[in-house]
Amino acid sequence: MEQFHNQIDDTQSQQYFQEQTKSNVSLRLIINYIFADIAKRPRSFKIGLFTTYIVITFLGLLQCVVQLSPLIFLQLDESATGDTDLLYLPMAAENTSNYRLINMTDLHQHTSQVSEFLDVSPRWMFMCNLGKIGVEQQFRAYFLILDSQLEQSIGIGRRTDVDIINNNEVYVSETGLRGLNASKGDQIYLNFNIVQLLKNFGVESESNEVTQQLRQPFKNAVNKQLAMFIKEDNFQDKQYNIAELAKYSQSYLNYVKGIEATSLTKTLAKEYFRQNVRSSENYTDEQREFAYQVIDVMFERNMTRDAQAINNFVNRVSKFTTFITISQFEDGLFDLLIQINEFNINAQVHGGVESPKGKWTDALGMMVFMDYKNATEIFLESFFNKLDQVITDNKKNNQGMPGAISELIPVNDTQKWAKDATTDFKLQEYSLMANLLFKNRGEKYETPRIAKDIIIQTTNEFFTEAGYNYPVQITAPLGFTIGLYHLMKNFIENLLGVATMILLMLSVLLIYSLMIGDIEEKTYEFGMLRALGFKKSWLIVLLMLQALTFAIPGLFLGLVSCYLMNCLISMYVFDMSLLLTTYSIPSSALAFQISLGITMPIISNILPIKKALSKALRDSLDLFHRVVNDILVTVVKLEMMGISTNQTVCSIILIGMGFISYYVIPMNIIFQNIRGAIVVINVIFITMVIGVTVLMNLSEQWLERQVLKIILFIKQSDKNLQMIILNNLKGHGSRNFKTTLMYSLGLAFIIFTGAQFTLQAEFLDDFIKTSLTSDIIVFDASIQRLGLDEYKFRKHLEWEKTNDPTFIQDYTFSALPLNEIPGIPRFFQISPLAHFPRRRIRLLAIEENYLEVINYKYYYPTEYDSTQKSVQYLPNGVRDGVKDLYNDEGKLNIAKTSDVYGIATNNHAQSNYKAMLKKFNNVTKEEEEVDKEINVIIPEGYRYEDGVDVDTPALLRISFRDRGRAIERRLKIKHMAIKIPNNNFSGYRTVALFGEGLITMKDAQMLINEILNSRIEENKFNYQRAHQYFQKLPKNLTYGLPKDSLLIKFKRDTTKEERIDFSNRLRNYFTNDQIYLFDSITMTETSQDFFKYLELFNIVVAAIALILSFFLLLVSFIGNVRNTSWEIGILRAVGLNEVQISKVFVYESITLITASGLIGTIIGLVIATTFTLQIVAFSEFKFKFSFPILTFLTTFLGGIFISIYASYLAVRSFKFKSIASTLKGQS
To answer: What topology does it adopt in the membrane (predicted)?
Structure first.
């Protein structure tokens, strides 16, 4: 038994050894065969290697760019909003006054406890006027005090080319230097307004009210100190006789002259006073200490000079009053100090800043900044120079209390005291704002979700450490706006997804064609291998290794090239953003490349392996009879089971579309997943492209015949080749179908994406022009809504028009919507005369030239008042509806016309309004206007939602919340429109939720006056609120209405520098830091540059697709020529020469590519048009299709050229063979 078992073990060992030997021999045979095949047929290897290389390199590089894109978008966001991650602003603590600062020492102590915080830098910022001696023009600019060394060390403004600046040096925006004709080393001055400075400390008031607002707090602060030593009630109102004070002052003067006769008498007098204080029992310890300090100060100074100043003060006061109180003295002192409203700081220009690049936000415009070094001394010196000037002037010219008090103020001594008192004061220990940066900032903004989470986490940690009542408020400028830039990132990622899909389809089909062509060509060789004992499993290994022989080297070369290119791109991005991550290929991109390089040849080999194994051995060895005996067992089984493959695929597609429509899209809407929504939309459009392409490809053969007829109609001499070409097209149908389908699909995607880029560039351009509505727009976004200083803006713009008549064509103002004015009801409703239906509307007053200034090509009117005779037209031939608004033709005068509908306006309110006009305005002419209808322009959507139109009388109802009362006014709808730029107009019913109505300035003034007059009796609080608001408005407003926007249109083409300089001149009249100016021309140019890069990317994708298509066509045509070699030999035997044979295949290739190219182009245009119509449906812009001409010419004409060249290369080898060799199919 043991021998038997040993014998079995020996047998198994021998069999295992034989199998191992066979495996080694087979593997060695496979390797030798593969290398021999590469040496014999190098073209297939080179094509496969190049395909793998270019696809791996390009797609991997795209993934690397996607990983770098957060840095690019972060840099763009920083340029727009600044480098600050968290901005700390002071907030008044509970039970404290509005005067507030940030304690930087305390803040730094708390921020250092948060691990993700890098550091925090203090800043002071306020407005000033920038000027130069000898230059009349001044410019309004922001003045910034910062710690330049700290900001440079932590990276605030890291991309701004500035140095650490020294004492009394400033950096100035280049636009300011150009305006002042200044350069480095020049002396400039900065003019500061104390009232404006106080606004940064919480004082919100106009200049004429600051005096009254600050007077009492100033007196209270002085009285609080005096109350510690004067123990009397109402001591500030106690009257002192000037005559008695004059006697005392003269006696005191004589006394101090005596004690200062010698130093000994002065010393003895000082000791005498101290002894009296020491021995007195009427003093508290605190009062006694204060008395000692006063005595020391008095005797350290020149007492005779001080006594003479007191005597001069009393003598001057005696000239205008006989009694004086402490309160009067405080008033005089305040009146003196408030004259120091403006003072100048002289500084030297250290350099210019062309662009802030994140040092501060672009929206601030012109900027001047200096370092904290000696900033306190510089400000105090400038302030006391101004004080000296004011004191000297009041001594000479002011005969009142300020002039008398000026005798008491020793400017030099006060300045010395202030400098000594502020010796240890460091300005950087306090600030008006603090800028904080994160550690590893690039990682924090990879996605908006990460940014949001880190901001929430770190701010929670900060307030947990500092306390929830810590008196600061935190904003995250970058975190708030980074999502807008990531929308662009999502769009680009979808674009890269489409490009990846196109190139993958082409590369997979190309490798498949290579492998299937090799199998067909090597059928006999595979048959011989199998006849010699080669197993089918080893044949599979052979085919897989053959594919990997070009996939692995291509993958390696692709990774190396991708790494080198990524290093160059990363170097550029890092240098541009000054943020550093890594130069290596990201792990996700590396995994994508490796998986792509391995799976792409494997997937491409599935069908070739199946075809290789489906050949019977006898058929493989038969050189003269080619049969196809594919194994279709699976399909037969499914059909026998009653399952259709086509039905299954269609069912899965329909289920998928239904799931996307009913679940995925609503889910993205609910969770506001913009990225997911964009992906879904692109998936839908991609499936549309694929489905339409497959469907349209059914007409490929018919279109091929038509194209061939056209070609041969042009080339009549080759008409005799028509039947041969048609037979070739029919015989090569199955091979050509795959090629033409993929070419049509790729071209359709390229045309679709190219048209999409062009369309979105046009749409963004339209959006900017309709949103900003003119070349330059200035608007007030402040909470107070006090509007623009219309008078100063008008005065300056008229100067601009006179100075350069070719520069400005026109400008216009629009008023603040009536229901946004404080004290005015917010419920304005429009309805037919029957009061139903009634919908809300916002009324906005515009000027008569409004449409002439805005981009009127986006003005889409629908209906005008047909009864009006005199009309005017815009330059584009469209009737000017705003001119109609100011035309009173057909306007119903209710006071003189019977009201046939029985509905009139509020007569009681009209009576009050007339009385008010007489009382306050002394006008009688406007009384005739009060009963007339109000002309209005409304959106087209109100026609369907509210039942009103141009021919329907309408009512305006202004509802008061209290007592349910309302004012009603008759409306005359002069015009309706779908879109008016810069206004909420639409043709859809939903406009009734947010729509605007346009009225004249005069009617707006009348409505406001009527509302306020009716509110006098009804709601005094709201009336007072509105009255206070109108008192704060800038002076000399037309119609007394606050203007919140200014639109300016240029007459000629302007350069960017001209617009920047003009914008800075306008900024001189900005009254607060929340007035913004936008240059729509520059914004449009920026967006167009962005889409030019995208179009260039699309062309690169098209070029790579064309290269892959060339090899695909070459492989396909070589297979066609090889399969028809016998027919070629017959044709040559019956008399066709080499040129005619070449023409047959060239015409065939042109026919195929032209037909498939037309199909792809038509599909791309149809889908792009569908996409355009979708955008038009939402945006209500006019349909405008932009064809990507450059992309089309690159792909379509390039496709024809490569088809001709590929067919020529395919047939070239047969031109020099003998007819016998061709008939035998010998290579």
So the answer is: Multi-pass membrane protein
Sheet strands (E) in 1022-1115: 1043-1050, 1075-1079
- pLDDT of 929: 45
Which of these, 117, 59, 120, lies nearest to 89 by C-alpha position?
120
**What rounded mean pLDDT belongs to the chain?**
79
CA 830 to chain centre: 36
Q: What is the mean pLDDT of residues 432-460?
A: 88
DSSP 237-285: G--EEHHHHHHHHHHHHHHHHHHTSSHHHHHHHHHHHHHHHHH-SS--H
User: Which band of pLDDT confidence, cut at 50, 70 and 90, is reported for residue 844?
Assistant: very high
Residues in the chain: 1227
Identify the pLDDT of residue 537: 74
Sign of CA dihedral 248, 251, 256, 259: negative
Residue 847 has pLDDT above 90, yes or no: yes
CA distance 752 to 1168: 5
**What is the pLDDT at residue 1149?**
84
Question: Cα-flanking dihedrals φ and ψ of residue 361, to 5°?
Answer: -75, 145
pLDDT at site 882:
95
Q: Give the pairing type, strands 934-939 and 966-979.
A: parallel
Start-end of H helices in 41-97? 42-81
Over residues 880-893, the mean pLDDT reads 86
Determine if residue 321 is left, alpha or beta; phi over 0 gives left, psi from -120 to 50 gives alpha, anything else beta.
beta
pLDDT above 50: residue 206: no
The two three-digit tokens of residue 935, written as one number: 């002309």
Distances (CA, A) of 301 to 256, 298, 306, 410: 11, 6, 8, 11
With H, G, I as helix, E, B as strand and everything else as coil, classify residue 1187: coil
Task: Dig out the tokens for 1130 from the structure.
Answer: 């017959």
> Would you say 349 and 185 are in contact if contact means Cβ atoms under 8 Å apart?
yes
Please give the pLDDT value at position 45. 79
The strand pair at 342-353 and 169-173 is best described as parallel
Instruction: Kindly state the DSSP code that residue 923 receives in the 8-state scheme.
Output: -
pLDDT tens column, 1020-1035: 666 777 888 888 889 8
Is the N-terminal amide bond of 837 cis, ω within 30° of 0? yes
- Smallest CA-to-CA distance from 975 within 949, 996, 947 is with 949
Residue with tokens 């004070």, as numbered in its chain: 245
Pair 173, 363: CB distance under 8 Å: no
H-helix or E-strand spanning residue 759: helix 733-772
Counting Cα atoms < 13 Å in the Cβ hemisphere of 1156 gives 25
Taking alpha carbons only, the member of 1161, 1145, 1147 closest to residue 1214 is 1145
Could you tell me the residue ranges of all domains in the chain? 84-204+345-374+427-476, 701-774+1054-1226, 776-917+929-1053
Decide: 909 and 1010 in contact? Cβ < 8 Å: yes
Confidence at 1015, pLDDT banded by 50, 70, 90: low
Which of 769, 770, 778 is closest to 1080 using CA atoms? 769
pTM of the model: 0.74
pLDDT at 425: 65
- Residues 193 and 186: their CA atoms lie apart, in Å, by 23
CA nearest 897: which of 922, 932, 872?
932
Tokens of residue 918, six digits:
């007489």
